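---------- Forwarded message ----------

FYI, see the NR LBD domain-containing protein record below. Original note from H. follows.
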Amino acid sequence: MESFYVSFKTLEASFQSSKIFPNFKETRFCLHYRQYVDQANLSHFYGPEKHPEGLSNYMSVCYVRGRRLINHLVKLQPTEMEIAAMAGLILWNVVASESMVQMTWLISRKRKSTLNCIRCISNNTGICKQEPDSERFLIWSGKQWRSVGTSWRQCRWQRSLTYLMIAQKIRGRNFLNKRHICQDLSLN
């Protein structure tokens, strides 16, 4: 939500500025409902003890970009409902991107834990062994060694068979239910 706040606040301040200061050559823009900053008079905004010249040079890029956005909003003249819809889209994008980051982390965690489990089992049992210089594993299917890759594009039944065989070997029985067997567990 922190990344949403920055985008939303920029949109809200730009919208308020487009309504209050609609002139294209205006140097003022709103920060909040009762606060505005004037790019032409930054020394008043920052105060003498905070080095206004250096800060104005540093922040001039932000002011130019902000004014460019305000000028676009002045041209478009969006309603409050359209601004609310834009805020909804911003929220949607933030939530979607954060969930993708979280999903990537979760997939990476599942992959690492699955590979560690298979490595541990391969050291303690004879049904699994790792190919030399690779992350691919060979699983004993009862008659022959079958290669099982670490890519999620590999056949789902191979992974399901692998998990089932490992489970049966560890416990002497199947402790995984059908939902876990049919679940597509990504190893990437």
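H. also flagged this: The first strand starts at residue 28 and ends at 32.
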